[in-house]
């Protein structure tokens, strides 16, 4: 268990490895959804100020919503783990023989036999905490996570805002030297770069090939942007 915790606290660049997944998926969602809003607004031919307003509103609202969802999801997992853990303590204390037999069955299924099996059972059931931990892992397949709801939510929100703001940068810092079509092209390039970087982090989390991780992320982002631009263009022709 200690080795697992130390492994989870390793860092990739400046991130704790255990929170990389929150950064990755928050960043991907932030970049894709914000860029989809920008593409939809461009497809509808909306003014620069409208693009910025819609983009920022989406960025803040969706980022907060995603982080809140992450918070409650992580908290629910922790609460479920503790609830099942308390049930196991009660069963160990009140249904001792039944729980001993369950430990015996678990390790018999692993190939332990005879005196060695009984020795293993005796060692495990001699310590209530070890006994409960074993039942949680082997019977319920539940392992306590070191992640906290506040940190997962914070990392999700941070990555959503930071990466999700990239599609808006060209509009936020626009000047008279650029027409809006140029700003959208710059936004496309910046978003592709951001998604490529996040895609490389995703490959670290999933263990996939780096090239395919980046390609997959870029493809999803491009598809979302195309659909948003197409819908915006169609609605602009119908409604405006």
TrEMBL record:
TM stretches of this protein: 20-38, 50-73, 152-173, 179-198, 210-231
Stored InterPro entries: Ccc1_fam
Species assigned in the record: Salinimicrobium oceani
Membrane topology: Multi-pass membrane protein
Protein name: TIGR00267 family protein
Record's keyword terms, sorted: Membrane, Transmembrane, Transmembrane helix
One Pfam family named in its UniProt record: VIT1
Subcellular location: Endomembrane system
Transport as UniProt keyword: no
Membrane as UniProt keyword: yes
């Amino acid at each position: 268990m200690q080795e697992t915790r130390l492994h989870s606290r390793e860092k990739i660049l400046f991130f704790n490895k255990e929170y990389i997944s929150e950064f990755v998926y928050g960043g991907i969602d932030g970049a894709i959804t914000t860029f989809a809003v920008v593409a939809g607004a461009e497809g509808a031919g909306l003014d620069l100020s409208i693009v910025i307003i819609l983009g920022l509103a989406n960025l803040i609202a969706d980022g907060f919503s995603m982080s809140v969802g992450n918070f409650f999801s992580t908290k629910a997992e922790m609460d479920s783990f503790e609830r099942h853990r308390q049930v196991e303590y009660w069963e160990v204390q009140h249904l001792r023989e039944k729980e001993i037999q369950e430990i015996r069955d678990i390790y018999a299924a692993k190939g332990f036999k005879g005196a060695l099996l009984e020795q293993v059972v005796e060692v495990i059931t001699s310590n209530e905490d070890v006994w409960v931990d074993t039942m949680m892992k082997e019977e319920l397949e539940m392992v306590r996570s070191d992640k906290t709801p506040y940190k997962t939510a914070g990392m999700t929100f941070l990555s959503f805002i930071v990466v999700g703001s990239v599609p808006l940068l060209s509009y936020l810092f626009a000047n008279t030297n650029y027409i809006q079509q140029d700003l959208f092209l710059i936004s496309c390039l910046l978003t592709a770069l951001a998604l490529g970087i996040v895609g490389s982090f995703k490959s670290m989390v999933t263990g996939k090939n780096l090239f395919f991780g980046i390609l997959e992320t870029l493809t999803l982002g491009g598809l979302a942007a195309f659909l948003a631009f197409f819908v915006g263009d169609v609605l602009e022709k119908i409604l405006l």
